[in-house]
Design goal:
By secondary structure, the chain is of the alpha/beta class. The chain folds into two domains: 4-180, 3-Layer(aba) Sandwich (Rossmann fold); 206-328, TPP-binding domain (Rossmann fold). Helices cover 29% and strands 24% of the residues. It is built from eight helices and 14 strands. It has helices at residues 18-34, 48-54, 76-90, 105-118, 222-235, 243-247, 278-284, 313-328; strands at residues 4-8, 38-44, 60-65, 98-102, 121-131, 135-141, 146-150, 157-161, 176-180, 211-215, 238-241, 268-272, 289-294, 307-310. Strands 7-6-5-8-4-1-2-3-9 form a nine-stranded mixed beta sheet, sandwiched between helices. A five-stranded parallel beta sheet has the order 11-10-12-13-14. Helix 7 links the parallel strand 12 and strand 13 (289-294). Helix 3 packs parallel to helix 4. The longest helix has 17 residues, at 18-34. The protein is elongated, with a radius of gyration of 22 Å. 45% of the residues are buried.
């Protein structure tokens, strides 16, 4: 069969994981450059909803039903990987040359399991990809200080793609969904999900926010983050934070942005009291517009922000709030 396959991730409610639409967009571009076909693969207890969504981005989607592949009941990744490996091994043409999936927790688990089952190499956390006599995967290394471009030593490989590095764009014409029987046998045990904990009061995932107001060490403490939250609320955005703020216990880890946190791509990123160290920059540098408020005009964030306000955030932020409220009044 050859070509490129995209593994469609499954959200807890059975819908297609958002990151899979981004991976599919990248795969479609690569397939065009390579003169080959991009195909989606969805493994789920009921693959139809996710497969139909993925078909908006790819010309062909294989839907594989497995009653155990319900993320609300079992750990989905291992089951999906076994079913995909079965399809690859059963294909008369040897399956795809490249398997792509999101670099989220499920995607990383799928990639690792497939590497063990198929014996293929893995290039992880791609920040971009191109085609030059084969896939060339771009990766950010050393805390974002360097970008590397790597290829596979063998004819086939697996790649995981970071969230938000590609803007999801549906194809001009929706593709077709094919119901495919599960191939091969499952040998690995299904791991039952005994409890799922959702963060109390959590809003939409920060990775999906169009506006983010983020606070850093300069916020000074939990009380300072109340100002960050007020400003985010007035703008209709989400609250983010640097690692320094999270490590200090001022805000939950779920809001951390950066190399060891979330990768975000909002239309507007308002940074309050954030120095802009390279580890933080990695997580937000692709934002549409970056506005920084910092007392230090030589802070690293000044080098890549679109607008820098040099001043005390406890004077600047309330002034912004007052202006926003006067306009909405």
């Amino acid at each position: 069969m050859g070509g490129i396959w995209v593994v469609g991730g499954i959200a807890p409610d059975g819908a297609l994981a958002r990151i899979s639409t981004e991976v599919a967009t990248l795969a479609r571009s690569l397939a065009g450059a390579a003169g080959t076909e991009a195909t989606g693969v969805v493994v789920a207890a009921d693959p139809a909803p996710a497969a139909e969504e993925l078909a908006r981005y790819l010309p062909r989607v294989l839907a594989v039903a497995d009653s155990d592949a319900d993320p609300g009941v079992h750990a989905w990744a291992v089951i999906a990987a076994e079913r995909i490996a079965g399809l690859v091994e059963a294909d008369a043409d040897g399956g795809p040359n490249l398997l792509l999936m999101g670099a989220d927790p499920d995607g990383r688990d799928v990639a690792g399991t497939l590497a063990g089952l198929l014996g293929w190499g893995v290039l992880a956390n791609a920040t971009g990809a191109a085609w030059d006599d084969g896939p060339r995967i771009e990766m950010s290394v050393f805390g974002g200080k360097l970008l590397t471009t790597s290829g596979f030593t063998g004819p086939k490989g697996i790649g995981t793609v970071r969230q938000t590095v590609v803007t999801a764009e549906p194809a001009a014409t929706a593709g077709a969904v094919e119901q495919v029987a599960a191939a091969g046998e499952r040998r690995l045990p299904a791991v039952r999900v005994v409890e799922r904990v959702a963060e109390a009061g959590a809003a939409a995932p920060i990775e999906e926010a169009k506006i983010i107001v983020a606070g850093g060490r300069g916020v000074g403490g939990p009380d300072g983050f109340r100002l960050v939250e007020e400003l985010a609320g007035a703008l209709g955005g989400a609250v983010g934070a640097s690692r320094a703020a999270v490590d200090s216990g001022w805000i939950p880890y779920a809001q951390q942005i950066g190399q060891t946190g979330k990768i975000v791509k909002p239309q507007l990123y308002l940074a309050l009291g954030i120095s802009g160290a390279i580890q933080h920059k990695v997580g937000m540098q692709t934002a549409g517009t970056i506005v920084a408020v910092n007392r230090d005009p030589d802070a690293p964030i000044a080098e890549f922000a679109d607008l820098v306000v040099v001043g005390d955030l406890f004077a600047v932020a309330p002034a912004i709030l007052a202006e926003l409220r006067s306009r909405s009044g």
